[in-house]
Amino acid sequence: MEGENRKILSVERTALNVLGRMSGVATLCRKAKEIAGNNTTIALTRKTIPGFNVFDKKAAEAAGAWPHRKNLEDAILIKDNHLMFISIGEAVRRAKQTKKFAEVEVKTWEEAIEAIEAEPDMVMLDNFPLKEAAKAVREIRSKNRKIKIELSGGISLENLADYAKLKPDYISLGFLTKAAETIDFSVDFV
User: Fold this and answer.
1) What residue segments make up the domains of the chain, in order of their start?
2) Which of the two residues, 71 and 108, has the higher pLDDT score?
3) In sequence order, what DSSP letters do the residues of 96-150 get, joined into one string?
4) Cβ-contact 179, 24 below 8 angstroms
5) Using CA atoms, how far apart are residues 170 and 93, in angstroms rounded to an integer?
6) Is 77 helix (H, G, I), strand (E, B) or coil?
7) Cβ distance 47 to 80 under 8 Å?
8) Using CA of residue 13, residue 14, residue 15, residue 18, what is the dihedral sign?
């Protein structure tokens, strides 16, 4: 970069910290993408550091990962807290009225069946053990091939390949942002 030394020095450390954080996220995303191969798309979760959401999402995109929704305007994610007050079917029906992409997070086999019947754009199988996830992926594919499938929760670099073999559309991993190590950069004047 070129510029006045005083201006460069005034933002040097902050810029390097942001660049280091983004590089750490991008590095983990790239590793996950390599492990998953072409079977699935790696995605971030919404678990980003406050104030760093934009940077984490940009780093993921640079590494070829899906940033998931960038904010609440991008899509509707129906979670367990919402389902305390409304059925999956009714929540999906209301979400479809908005014409936004609608995803339902399910935690049990029964919820997965209810979600399939409601026909959201995507079903997220949250914290499903491998065998249950395999059964759910097969069932969703057999009933409605248009519904996208996301696996999330309890998936790490160590078991990612096993989950990717199930061929979901997406696997989202919280550790991509939670465990990202900041890569050390420095500025040297020449």
Assistant:
1) 5-178
2) 108
3) HHTTSEEEEEE-SHHHHHHHHHH--SEEEEES--HHHHHHHHHHHHHH-TTSEEE
4) no
5) 23
6) strand
7) no
8) positive
Greatest alpha-carbon pair distance for the chain in Å reads 64
What is the Cα–Cα distance from 40 to 27, expressed in whole angstroms?
18
Rounded Cα distance between 41 and 54, Å, is 20
Please state, in angstroms and rounded to a whole number, the distance separating the CA atoms of residues 30 and 24. Answer: 10
Task: Tell me, yes or no, if 79 is annotated catalytic.
Answer: no
d(CA 181, CA 17): 11
Residue-level length of the chain: 190
- Tell me how far CA of residue 25 lies from CA of 14, 58, 88, 190, in angstroms: 17, 9, 33, 29
Catalytic residue among 7, 33, 47, 148: 47
For residue 115, what are its two tokens?
A: 């979600």
Q: Which of 97, 101, 98, 168 is nearest to 130 (CA)?
A: 168
Q: Which residue type does 48 have?
A: T
| pLDDT single digits (tens) 128-174 | 999 999 999 999 999 988 999 999 999 999 999 999 999 999 999 98
Tokens for 101?
Answer: 């992409």
The CATH homologous superfamily for domain 5-178 is Aldolase class I (3.20.20.70)
pTM: 0.88
Distance from C-alpha of 24 to C-alpha of 60, rounded to nearest angstrom: 10
Structural contact between residues 94 and 82, judged by C-beta atoms closer than 8 angstroms: no
